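hi! just following up on the protien thing from before. the input was this:
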Amino acid sequence: MVKAVFFDLDDTLLWDKQSIQLAFDKTCKEAQEKYDVDAKALEEAVRAEARELYASYDTWDFTQMIGINPFEGLWGDFTDKINVHFRKMKEIVPTYRKEAWTRGLKRLGIDDAAFGAHLGERFPANRRVSPCLYDDTFAVLDKLIEKGYRLLLLTNGAPTLQNEKLDITPELVPYFEHIVISGNFGRGKPDPSIFEHALFLMGLSKDEAIMVGDNLKTDILGSNRIGMKNVWINRENHEKVDGIEPTYEVTSLTKLFELVEKL
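and the predicted 3d structure came back as:
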């Protein structure tokens, strides 16, 4: 019998992709107003440069293991002191932001390092004022609580960054008995140990909880590895990859509640 629901955070409850998109829209519009550059072309150029730069740093393997993507690197401060790699990231990100935007501008024929540095600081500011949640997030969490389900949040990422996301959407926090962040734990999803740790915190067996998330390669693969039931939130009708099979698949959080009730 399912007694608890474990939720991923980014793009499961928080619409992080939309928050990042809004930040790009606002930042690139500023460049458009200054240089009459195509805003969408600049966004695509900066995204490409950011991915390439991010993968070139010696923190790359760590960020992959903990689960910190290049666009989180464009706005996170990484002041976490619990790991040397976070300290390295704190040193890297100011230059990373400047370089990603400066190189993006150069791709479009604009050589202006000072403006690139300016945009590199505007992007974090724009991201921080653009928190987005899915329309059904609170309604579904309310229903689960009303029905007596226990809730835990299990998220990959840097503690400072994930906590900042929660700070700007403070209504989320009270729903959860525990908030487990991979950067605090030391391993990220899909490592089986972080799922086992979450079960330990709740005092539950793998058969008494279900994992809910949007990412097949982290949320679903990791819970599969310990034989824990899971639900893939597939809002955008993605194809399954690498033979990863979710226990259940739904297209929204609303449909998740209907599924959990049947269990």
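The mean pLDDT is 96.
The longest strand covers residues 150-155.
cheers
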